[in-house]
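so my prof wants the structure for this chain in the tokens format not the other one, which i didnt know existed until like an hour ago. anyway here's the sequence
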Amino acid sequence: MSKAGVVLKQVLETYGIGQSELAKAMGLRRSSVHSWVKEQSDPASNAILEIRDALEKINPAAAEEFMRLWLDRSEN
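here's what i got, hopefully its the right format
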């Protein structure tokens, strides 16, 4: 699976954001976010930006951290 699920889980835990809260901000069901966090499926490439945008609405620092971690090449 992709790095996105690992990074998303870390950011949600660090900033105390629930999967349901993120799903609501994205207009999705919680099960979609849950499958990403549990690395059962990968978010589509356009979903990465949607995750960022939703996190931005909830907590701008969380959005920034998500993108920083997702783009970090040292973990590849």
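also thought this was worth mentioning. The chain has one domain: 3-71.
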